[in-house]
Amino acid sequence: QVEVVESGGGLVQPGGSLRLSCTASGSFLQLYDMEWIRQAPGKARESVAQITREGDTHYHNAVKGRFTIARDNTKNTVTVTLQMNNLKPEDTAVYFCNADGRRSGRRENWGQGTQVTVSS
Predict the structure, then answer these.
(1) Mean pLDDT, the chain, integer
(2) Banded pLDDT at 104 (limits 50, 70, 90)
(3) What is the 3-state secondary structure (H, E, C) of 63-85?
């Protein structure tokens, strides 16, 4: 069983920065791809950034050059951070972390989400 907990959301002015953190706890986490997904009110959920178990990164076009995803693996945990710079009002959303074990025959595991609000 994998537990996922996010932290680091909050209110920031346009142009500001936030750093989100996600800690996944469980077994075989080195086999999991990690992903940040966001959902804004009235909009579809969208994948913001991914980091695979091999360390490859992928970003939504809307955040390229502004967001950076990184991961740190230990024996029974994976910590994934999302550094968000030059934030814009359209980045306002609930941000979820997903520990995705499907490539190794396991399941997805989502956290409860953390609110990011970009407003002056």
Answers:
(1) 97
(2) very high
(3) CCCCEEEEEEECCCEEEEEEEEC
φ and ψ at 30, to 5 degrees? Answer: -65, -15
Beta strand residue intervals within 1-120, DSSP E: 3-7, 10-12, 18-25, 33-39, 46-51, 57-59, 67-73, 77-84, 93-100, 108-110, 114-118
Look at the chain and count its residues. Answer: 120
Do 96 and 39 contact (CB within 8 A), yes or no?
A: yes
Residue 84 in this model has a pLDDT that exceeds 90: yes
Is the predicted pLDDT of residue 113 greater than 90, yes or no?
yes
What residues contact residue 100 under an 8 Å CB cut-off, 6+ apart? Answer: 32, 33, 34, 35, 108, 109
